[in-house]
Design brief:
The chain is of the alpha/beta class. It has 22 helices and 31 strands. The strands form seven sheets. It has a seven-stranded parallel β-sheet, with helices on both faces. The protein is globular and about 95 Å long. Bound molecules: adenosine-5'-diphosphate and zinc ion (2 copies).
Length: 745
């Protein structure tokens, strides 16, 4: 008797075993989809993980109902990767499966079903005698004219799409239908691809500069010994062009490349650049493509002519590659590589390394500001390290200077949100036809309303956070759950009209800047202005085409954009970036500011970056000014060591949520107590997080700071055993609980 272990698209930790009916023997294998019964009269699409002949003990084994495929849709590498993600990130295997496979490929779940795209075509009726045709049409003039035009078209090719025909001839559908009714023409429909588009190449890869060539050779040498290599190259050092050469090499070897980018960096700037070299060998996989397209891309990857290169966001690492040679993780330090919600909470960079390892491929991590963990791995020779210190064509790195806002305020020189020196520099940049980027890491108009008498602030009634005022829409908004409220001007405590706007978001900054530079065209880029389908691209192209002189925005601005006419970058209230109570806040701030600075600089002139801060003496600014990544890295590393943080410890946080605060609290306390029995001091908490209520759920968390030498398997086994004891308590049965492994905040 053969049994199959399968995974179901349900948030269940385990795989399930089914019996393989005799008729299916020999027709089934790993990675096939099958329809299986589960629960009461329900059927699901499952994927076969393994076949064996160990009958499960003590349970009734159901039979597989039917097979969906005659060939695998998932390969063995993928199955093993799913299992690794589920194990390492402590996520239910079913969640991984759900995230990995497009919904259209799991039809029995009655989620969005894959529907092919069809188009209508026109050809001559097979029974038509051309000579008699005009006689049959009779006297209808338009019909006759259309027929003559169609005859001409169809003499060149046998068919034409109905839509195209009506568009080119300008006749109405009624006229065309007349010819169909008369049995002159027939209309039929056919499936068409959503993704197959001819893309012509327009250039060869550029010849590499001497520095680039050296880096390229070093990367290849490094791959002879190591599986992972870090390319640490300053902004605009030509990393992308090196990637292009590496991809070209993979093509020669008949291997595929996966090019991972953070969500926001997947711009047309980058895809156009890659398409120019690789044409339709390149597939693009981002979060705005719909499930039908996802399914078609998946099917194409299984076909005889798969994409040889895929550029995509984190979920693209689930695609079925069959001859993967290289994975590039661009901007590897980006936090959006870590999935936060929903489960599986995986880190795409680290998962990419596992994917490559499983396929015998190599991983290249690239960044101007590597994450501390990655740089540590490179310095300790776990990964290779290749460095590019110069910008392409020796273009200079920007000059970074500071404006002390506290002092300026004291001397009454801050007449607006911008320091006088910054205003002056912007004016002269505008006069010379150059552009300006102003960076403020907070969207909305004013972050908060506050009573000037008693300090009361309006908060979201579902989440424990202050609301942000959005002037445009005249509303208060919760940035955690998006609930909106009417603004309040009368303090409910003092009963006075004493509530005022305090602080400043991008919307307010935009307004102030417009007043300061009335002749300049100003645009704003943040999550509020980029919600529409092409709005993000539009803002970028307007800026690139110099329709806009000053671009104001949040961190979205700092990512992977390449502008050639920006001479000033202003970072407004940098302190806000550094004051988060998070052990990574300085690392983040440093990365963000250096990346933002990287947007400045022109071919022949050094760019300028002005950072406004109340405390320019902080050490981080010295490193920034000197572009001293390594110095900054060493200083941070020392802190991480003394405070027991990664890379010296591994973090797992355990989150508890319940609408009843008491349940969340006592559940977390109980769980922590069980953990401490074995893990002692490595268990911290439970803590009440800063935002301790979201969407009516009260939150508590436990943080584990684990020694690096502990076996991940043993630790997870132990935590899971604690989890089962926790679940045995009726009180905690409905506490929502999940793990966040290697969390980023
Ligand atoms: P990075 O990825 O490090 O930010 P890019 O690869 O985008 O750097 O290079 C910066 C700029 O220099 C781009 O405009 C790019 O087209 C140009 N560039 C880089 N390498 C070359 C090359 N070998 N020949 C010509 N132009 C290059
Ligand atoms: Zn008040
Ligand atoms: Zn809320």
């Amino acid at each position: 008797m053969t049994f199959a272990d399968v995974v179901l698209p349900l948030p269940l930790a385990e795989s399930f075993t089914y019996a393989v009916p005799a008729a299916m023997q020999g027709k089934i294998g790993i990675g096939f989809r099958a329809i299986v019964p589960f629960g009461r009269q329900k059927f699901y699409t499952a994927v076969i993980l393994r076949l064996h002949n160990h009958a499960p003990k003590g349970v009734e084994v159901k039979e597989i109902h039917s097979l969906t495929d005659s060939h695998p849709v998932v390969n063995e590498h993928q199955v093993r990767l799913w299992e690794w993600i589920s194990f390492y990130y402590m996520s239910p295997l079913g969640d991984v499966f759900k995230a990995a496979l497009p919904s259209g490929m799991k039809p029995a779940d009655l989620e969005t079903k894959y529907t092919p795209k069809t188009e209508n075509y026109i050809r001559f009726h097979p029974g038509l005698k051309l000579d008699d045709a005009e006689k049959n049409i009779g006297k209808a003039k338009k019909r006759l004219e259309l027929f003559r035009e169609i005859s001409e078209i169809l003499s060149l090719k046998n068919f034409i799409s109905s839509k195209e025909l009506l568009e080119t001839t300008g006749y109405s559908a009624a006229v065309l239908n007349g010819l169909i009714e008369k049995n002159i023409l027939i209309q039929y429909s056919e499936d068409v691809s959503r993704i197959d588009k001819r893309v012509e190449t327009s250039r060869k890869p550029f010849a590499l500069s001497e520095h680039q060539q050296k880096a390229f050779d070093e990367i290849n040498r490094c791959f002879e010994e190591k599986n992972v290599c870090l390319l640490h190259g300053v902004t605009s050092s030509g990393k992308t062009e090196i990637y292009i050469h590496l991809i070209e090499e993979q093509l020669k070897w008949g291997k595929q490349t996966l090019y991972l980018v953070p969500e926001i960096a997947l711009t047309t700037q980058l895809t156009t650049r890659l398409q120019a070299v690789f044409g339709d060998k390149l597939g693009i996989y981002h979060s705005k493509i719909n499930d039908n397209e996802r399914t078609e891309i998946w099917q194409k990857m299984l076909s005889d002519s798969p994409y040889e290169i895929v550029i995509g966001v984190r979920s693209s690492l689930f695609l079925p590659f069959n001859k993967l040679g290289l994975v590039i993780v661009d901007e590897e330090h980006e936090t959006s590589y870590k999935q936060q919600e929903p489960s599986p909470r995986y880190h795409a960079r680290d998962t990419a390394i596992m994917l490559a390892y499983g396929c015998g491929a190599k991983t290249l991590l690239g960044s101007a500001t590597p994450s501390l963990e990655t740089f540590y791995n490179a310095k300790t020779e776990k990964y290779g390290l290749v460095t590019l210190e110069k910008r392409f064509e020796n273009m200079e790195l920007p000059n970074i200077s500071f404006e002390n806002t506290q002092e300026l305020r004291r001397k009454k020189k801050m007449k607006s949100v911008l320091a006088p020196a910054l205003i002056e520099k912007i004016n002269s940049a505008l006069e010379s036809g150059e552009q300006v980027i102003l960076f403020r890491n907070r969207r909305g108009f004013a972050p908060m309303l506050e009573c000037k008498l008693c300090g009361w602030t309006p908060k979201c009634n579902r989440c424990d956070v202050s609301l942000t005022y959005h002037k445009n829409r005249r509303e208060l908004k919760c940035h955690y759950c998006n609930k909106t409220y009417k603004p309040i001007y009368e303090c409910p405590v003092c009963h006075e009209k004493s509530v005022e706007l305090i602080g400043m978001g991008t919307e307010k900054l935009e307004e102030e800047v417009a007043q300061l530079f009335p002749d300049a065209v100003i645009a704003r880029m943040d999550t509020d202005t980029t919600r529409g389908k092409n709005s993000y691209e539009k803002i970028i192209s307007d800026f690139q085409n110099k329709k806009v002189q000053i671009l104001v925005g949040t961190q979205m601005l700092s990512k992977g954009l390449d502008f050639d006419n920006v001479s000033i970058v202003g970072i407004i209230s940098a302190d806000g970036l550094l004051n988060h109570p998070d052990f990574r806040s300085h690392e983040r701030g440093f990365q963000l500011m250096l990346q933002a600075a990287g947007r400045s600089g022109r071919k022949n002139r050094q760019g300028e970056v002005i950072i406004q801060t109340a405390d320019p003496e902080q050490p981080i600014y010295r490193y920034l000014q000197a572009n001293d990544y390594e110095g900054f890295y060493r200083s941070q590393l020392a802190e991480r060591k003394s405070f027991n943080y990664p890379p010296y410890k591994r973090l797992i946080s355990i989150v508890f949520k319940h609408k009843d605060e008491q349940k969340a609290e006592s559940g977390a306390v109980y769980f922590a107590r069980l953990l401490k029995q074995s893990l002692g001091e490595m268990v911290l908490g439970p803590n009440k997080p800063i935002v301790s209520r979201i969407q009516r759920y009260h939150i508590r968390d436990i943080l584990l700071k684990l020694d690096n030498n502990l076996s991940p398997a043993k630790i997870r086994e132990f935590i899971k055993s604690v989890e089962s004891r926790f679940r045995e308590k009726p009180d905690f049965k409905y506490v929502v609980m999940y793990y966040d492994v290697d969390g980023i905040s």
